[in-house]
Design brief:
Layout (H helix, E strand, L loop, with lengths): L1 E6 L3 E2 L9 H22 L11 E9 L5 E2 L2 E9 L6 H16 L5 E6 L14 H10 L12 H6 L27 H16 L1
Antiparallel strand pairs: 1-5, 1-6, 2-4, 3-5
Length: about 200
């Protein structure tokens, strides 16, 4: 989750030369973000995901304080969901370069900062032993999911990681979030099977 903040110069709307409109600058930024999203979706695709392209969502914007004042400050918040193989630092560098080129000579000050540092995308190969064993124990083929876990950090430590457990992501982050009790026994049996396979 990222933020872009533009600082211009406030002034009275009766004379546009008195200011530098940050909201108008943000209009250009939004157009550039949409173009970048299209380019990313052309460059990256992973058919294992239900949404097989990276996403970029504009989630929040705030700028100005009055219709008859030139907007001096504007801030946009957005979310990027990369696919495996897309490095967060690389994406941020690409974004900074695009914003710098777009607003060069505009007189607007541009700042980009993370609202949330982000979790890198991860992928454990389908041929990995842990994936194969989990598929046999569950009776289901492995699939990709578009939510964050600690998995990438465990992979970085040299482990092979899968995301496996009871429950349903559709129930997560809801006011009545719950875990059905009948989902526990099968999960315990799967964990015992994994432990027997890898630890004995």
């Amino acid at each position: 989750m990222e933020a872009i903040r533009l600082t211009g110069q406030a002034g009275h709307s009766s004379d546009p030369s008195l200011g530098n409109n940050a909201l108008e600058g943000m209009h250009r930024v939004i157009g550039e973000l949409m173009a970048w999203r299209d380019e990313l979706q052309q460059r990256y695709r992973n058919p294992l995901f239900a949404v097989d392209v990276p996403t970029l969502n504009l989630g929040h914007i705030h700028g100005g304080d009055n219709p008859n004042r030139i907007c001096g400050h504007c801030e946009l918040h957005f979310d990027i969901r990369p696919l495996p193989g897309m490095a967060l630092d690389q994406l941020r560098g690409e974004l900074d370069g695009r914003m710098g080129r777009l607003l060069s000579g505009s007189g607007l000050k541009v700042e980009r900062f993370p609202l949330f540092e982000g979790i890198p995308a991860m992928e454990t190969p389908a041929a990995a032993d842990i994936v194969q064993v989990a598929e046999r124990l569950t009776g289901h083929s492995a699939e990709a999911v578009a939510f964050g876990t600690e998995g990438p950090y465990l992979n970085d430590l040299g482990m092979q990681t899968i995301i496996l457990g009871p429950g349903d992501i559709d129930q997560a982050h809801q006011p009545d979030e719950y875990l059905a009790l009948d989902r526990l026994a099968p999960s315990i049996a799967q964990l015992r099977g994994l432990i027997r396979h890898f630890c004995y």
